[in-house]
Hints:
Mean pLDDT: 91
CATH superfamily of the largest domain: Alpha/Beta hydrolase fold, catalytic domain
Distance between the termini: 53 Å
Largest sheet: 8 strands, mixed
Radius of gyration: 23 Å
Number of domains: 2
Amino acid sequence: MSDDERQQIRTGPHPLALHVASATQNWMGAAAAFPLFQLGGLQLHPDLTQLAGDLQKDLQGLDLEQLQILIMHKAQSRLSDTLAGLTAYQKHPYRRHVTAAPLFHQIGTTEVRDYGTDLPPDAPVVLAIPSLVNPAYILDLKQDHSFMRFLAGQGIHPYLLDWTTPGDEEQGFGLEDYILNRLIPLIHILHRHHNRKIHLLGYCMGGNLSLAAAQILQKGTEAGAQTGAEDILESLTLIATPWDFHASQPQHISTIAGNVLKLAPLTQKKKTVPMNIMQLFFFSLDPTLSQRKFRKFSRLDPESASAHHFVAIEDWANDGADLPPSVARDCLINWYQQNQPHRGCWNIAGQTIDPGRLTLPGHIILPQSDRIVPPASAKALQKKLPHFCQTTAPGGHVTMIAGLNAKTTLWHKIASYLK
């Protein structure tokens, strides 16, 4: 194998061993579990008791030995398809080649990129804030499929905040530090530069950070006493933003969050939490998602637009910098374990972040089929913001904002609101 060929082979999805082992265990265990199911000895989730009983009735009178063989063949086929999809992804020739937008400003390692340098000075200005967990370029995925570039084409001046890899100073940051020492100062800088109100747009946990910043800047708060949100912010758009972190999640989500974080010291000597630790946690939210999507990918024409787009999103999902330990603790313990935002005890800058106190107008976009941010989690936030416009977007957590159909299903609606 040549060096060029080696460079074309991906090592993801991460953690690769977990994806392969999980698929193997699930499908090889399916046939082995069938006799136990028939004997009534298989442990089932209480919600599945009725379905299991109905299935056992449907199986009465069938040739169970033949059925066992059919199950084995089906399980073997699904495992083979999963592994074929993984291999096809690893060897796919697609690589991201996107012209970087000009750097507008930087504080520490946090950058703001300008996607509207050619727009007139009276164009609406929006600052997009992505999650800290994955790279910012999900909003600028491909040269010909970029939410940021689409907004610019609609006459809106878009800026993208990119958290990038934490430096020496950021390694000691928690969410509060990123909000107070990075996001809010950059909002002020952007406002002074344009001398006009700024639209904030937050995606995923970027929505939580944006909401906290908007409240802190709001008139009536100590931090916003001099320059309130009403003076520098035009609106707040929240896309797939979680609020009730226990809604529609496994009952053991609190235990998973705590145990995953305990793994961090075992992995390396760095001061940051490896991205694979967070990948492990999100894998646990839907352990069969990987198998389903790679089986589907195995059936795609590698040259098709769908295949190229799948690889683009999957590469993004497996990218990303390690996290500062305090950020990981804030997300896994304060949010997923203790559910602080929904319980009304998430505090930033000495005040409880309460969406009900926000007077800023806005637009909340709810996911239709999302495992990372289940619809019930986002709806818990929507109930606290009844004055916000509401849109329900088709697709999952990523496809709703970056899928092949996102331009027609969501991007135009966001642009229409921002105008």
